[in-house]
Here is the input.
Amino acid sequence: MTAPGNDARWPASGSVRRLEWIAAGRLEQAGADDWSQSWQLYQEAADEFRRSVRRELGVPGELLPHGAWVRPSLPAPADPGE
Here is the structure.
């Protein structure tokens, strides 16, 4: 048996590696557009990895893709003057 999401992890790994190369200056011709495109590809690959793991583990429900999850708001701090 392979680890959950094993097939989907390689595209995510490649996307991360490309981002690292751009950030380190290893891709001399890469610019802001290359970074944006690589970031988008990483997010899509990471979402597919998570979907794959959920599917293989039988986790019910839908995955919220990158950017769709909204952090719950925290309650306002108590006013120390009250």
Q: What stands out?
A: The chain has a mean pLDDT of 78. Helices lie at 6-24, 32-57. The longest helix spans residues 32-57. The CA atoms of residues 21 and 27 lie 6 Å apart.
